[in-house]
Amino acid sequence: MMVIRNMAASKRKLQLLTSRIIGARTMGAVPQKSPPASSEELMRLERDYSAHNYHPIPMVFSQAKGACVWDPEGNKYIDFLSAYSAVNQGHCHPKVMKALIEQAQRLTLSSRAFYNDKFPILAEYLTQMFGYDMVLPMNTGAEGVETALKLARKWGYEKKRIPKDEALVVSCCGCFHGRTLGAISMSCDNDATRGFGPLVPGHLKVDFGDVSALEKIFKDHGEQICAFLFEPIQGEAGVILPPDGYLKSVRDLCSRHNILMIADEIQTGIARTGKMLACEWENVRPDVVILGKALGAGVIPVSAVLADKEIMLCIKPGEHGSTFGGNPLASAVAIAALDVIKEEGLIERAAKLGQELRDQLVKIQLRFPQIIKEVRGRGLLNAIDLNNKALSPVSAYDLCIKLKERGILAKPTHDTIIRLAPPLCISLEELNEASKAINDVLERDLPKMQEQKPKVETSTLQPCDRCGRQL
Ligand SMILES: Cc1ncc(COP(=O)(O)O)c(C=O)c1O
């Protein structure tokens, strides 16, 4: 009897195991049909199976080289976003690809539980190139920002002697520093913060570009403030440049109040604005610099925080890190990415072609003064600011769709701003093509769209939940 019961139990166990294996196979099964090839089908798959955390322009990247991109149907486009300034060196740069492939065949990951033979080379290269004692490697930009915030708090407690858990960080209205909780806690973007509270405490806001307001905050709370975090040019806010002399005044105020000046150069750095770092426009040396995006040449995520020993050594073994930060594959790519910037004169190229692009855009503005409010930027980080009322009911997004149909890939920031930030290797002919497309969209497509699109109330600006300003 006992034997029979045992046999029955074993049979049930076997059945359960078999059903689990079969179930697992069914769940993980690769679809048997051939992989989807058309743009339409790929976009449908993404809509059906991926979280809806982006609102992409309907164009599928399938292949890219330099400043050009092709979709699966073979249509060619010129890239004017560069993956939010991550592809400064141009798509699939041969030198970066060679470094990637050679390193991938040798060693990809050691973790920093051990040393590897590539990260130390990058560490020396980066610190010498940017003139800081040390680097802390991470992967994405947001992680770089988190690292800088933690470093600043640690320095604040250890060196500035801020009382326990009272450290404050000041950031700017309209800033963008990424999507992690720490980074959105600096933010003024209702979409980024609503529904995600409670945010990280210990934070004050100040208007970007307003020296007197910053001075007042430093005077009122300076003893508790460990850092001022800012973008030298606000990218996501719509390429907002501070007034001349701002960065110098910030440097001066931070030094006077013993507050760390932290420059988020994730979007503005690595030659994008016509200097290696945008802070160089005012010959200013921040205490902490955060790099990301183009440090990996659009190939692999690499971010880095640079600082001197006095600050960096506040972080001790075990207090911060990342499994992939400083991995040999990313290090090899970053070394090649920086070599390309130097060898191909991309700093000078960004400065020269950026001026050319703005000159062309200003000519278009003269033709459509009621539509284009302002053309602004530095190097190849530029924006066209459109007049909401004159554009209505058409949005900057609608214009970007039309630009795409004319072979130019750009993305709006906010409802009325189009950012233009091509890879720094773009040719003059490609720049001319883009200017012509922008002109044609405003001349030919816009009037038709305005006729066809139903009129809606133009949206009024929403006040920021955090600072109450209209942003
Ligand atoms: C200034 C700035 N900081 C941080 C980030 C976040 O970088 P990532 O998307 O790699 O996390 C971005 C991204 O756009 C950025 O522009």
TrEMBL record:
Cofactor: pyridoxal 5'-phosphate
EC top class named in words: transferase
Pfam families (alphabetical): Aminotran_3
GO biological process, one term: L-arginine catabolic process to proline via ornithine
Protein's name in the database: Ornithine aminotransferase
Pathway: Amino-acid biosynthesis; L-proline biosynthesis; L-glutamate 5-semialdehyde from L-ornithine: step 1/1
Entry GO MF terms: identical protein binding; ornithine aminotransferase activity; pyridoxal phosphate binding
Reaction(s) catalysed by this chain's protein: a 2-oxocarboxylate + L-ornithine = L-glutamate 5-semialdehyde + an L-alpha-amino acid
EC numbers on record: 2.6.1.13
CDD domains per record: OAT_like
Similarity field: Belongs to the class-III pyridoxal-phosphate-dependent aminotransferase family.
Example of a GO cellular component annotation carried by this entry: cytoplasm
Keywords assigned: Aminotransferase, Pyridoxal phosphate, Transferase
